[in-house]
Design a protein that fits this description.
Layout lengths: L4 E5 L14 H13 L4 E3 L3 E7 L6 E7 L7 H11 L6 E7 L7 E5 L7 H10 L5 E6 L9 H5 L5 H24 L1 H8 L7
Parallel strand pairs: 1-4, 1-5, 5-7
Antiparallel strand pairs: 2-3, 3-4, 6-7
């Protein structure tokens, strides 16, 4: 196995989805691509990829944005992992998460998919849930709005002002995860629990 990391930003293809909450994973990947100073290229695995290093002498990474719809992200992810010889322990899925507040970033390995069909498909394709996740909080739908309708809408006006900071923080979390490991990244990005 290689020491390369596969970092996948989940979302839907097409201009109409670009600003959706569901596409925040791909927005984070665009932020990381900007830091690497590179451009995505189409790969035969039905994904756009960018290879590079995070910082001088940093870990080698393959940034990837599947070109399939969210619910069938598994094929491209498994295809890339196979192509580059990357094990599930070095696969990082960056995705929207309704179960944590907007403007919050959390990291974990394995666990459930929380109704997230993109993650469910990746787990199925990789044959394990034990890959890393960078969960980008988009908050819960207001009132009785359906979850699917909520995540397929663009961020609200007030949220939009905060989105660049959220993307920056999520990109920092990805970088720290691959450089220093999950525990160090969780200690930095998870808010400290206060005794009440």
């Amino acid at each position: 196995m290689t020491d390369t990391w596969l970092i996948v930003g989940l979302g839907n293809p097409g201009a109409e989805y670009q600003g959706n909450r569901h596409n925040v994973g791909q927005m984070v990947l665009d932020e990381l691509a900007g830091r690497l100073g590179g451009k995505f290229k189409t790969h035969k695995s039905r994904a756009q990829v960018l290879e590079g290093r995070l910082g001088i002498g940093g870990p080698r990474v393959v940034l990837s944005k599947p070109m399939t719809y969210m619910n069938v992200s598994g094929g491209p992810v498994a295809g890339l992992a196979n192509f580059y010889g990357i094990g599930p322990d070095r696969v990082v899925a960056v995705h929207d998460e309704i179960d944590i507040p907007f403007n919050t970033v959390k990291l974990k390995v394995g666990g459930g998919e929380g109704g997230h069909n993109g993650l469910r498909d990746i787990s199925k394709a990789l044959g394990t849930k034990d890959y890393l996740r960078v969960r980008v909080g988009v908050g819960r739908p207001p009132g009785r709005m359906e979850t699917a309708d909520y995540v397929l809408r663009d961020f609200g006006t007030t949220e939009r002002k905060e989105v660049p900071f959220l993307l920056d923080e999520a990109a920092d979390a990805v970088e720290m995860l691959v450089r220093e490991g999950l525990t160090a990244a969780q200690q930095k990005f998870h808010p400290a629990k206060t005794d009440v």
